[in-house]
Design a protein that fits this description.
With 148 residues, this protein is α+β, with helices and mostly antiparallel strands. It has six helices and three strands. Helix 1 packs across helix 2 and helix 2 packs across helix 3. It starts with 5 loop residues before the first helix and ends with a helix.
């Protein structure tokens, strides 16, 4: 049986804290990322962060790192699960490993999309302002076709 070392345990805690902060400050974009991830999974059964980046349009002042918070809630809910890693296909990611996600509960994914509709773009007070960013890719609401 493997054990998590204190170093890894601390790292996991920091990751959880960072994702919670990102989700609270970039709620609309994380929501759109989750909707995009589920739409891709419903269409193909598998998806990566590259698929989310391709689908979600981020303002220039929003750092795409906020999309790192996308899969956690869905995985904890048992809707998706990790299937391992592959190399990113995005040139700016320099072929780094990205997680491959697999859909495990189609009915729950569809219900999640119904219960979590897209929201309007945030105002500056809601977290649309700068937080050290770079440009992100494009996307309308791709999940609409998955539930139509």
């Amino acid at each position: 049986m493997s054990q998590i070392s204190p170093c890894n345990n601390e790292g996991e805690g920091r990751k959880r804290d960072a994702h919670a902060l990102l989700e609270s400050r970039r709620r609309v974009y994380v929501l759109r990322g989750r909707r995009a991830l589920l739409a891709r999974l419903l269409a193909t059964g598998r998806a990566t962060a590259d698929d989310v980046r391709d689908a979600v349009d981020l303002p220039r002042n929003v750092n795409p790192v906020c999309l790192g918070a996308v899969p956690t809630l869905l995985a904890r809910a048992g809707i998706i699960e990790s299937e391992g890693f592959t190399k990113s296909r995005r040139p700016d990611a320099h072929a780094r490993p990205v997680q491959v996600w697999r859909l495990v509960n189609r009915a729950a994914a569809l219900a999640w999309l119904v219960d979590n509709p897209d929201r309007p773009d945030p105002t500056p007070e809601e977290g649309a302002g700068p937080v050290a960013g770079q440009p992100g890719p494009r996307s309308p609401d791709v999940a609409a076709s998955a539930i139509a």
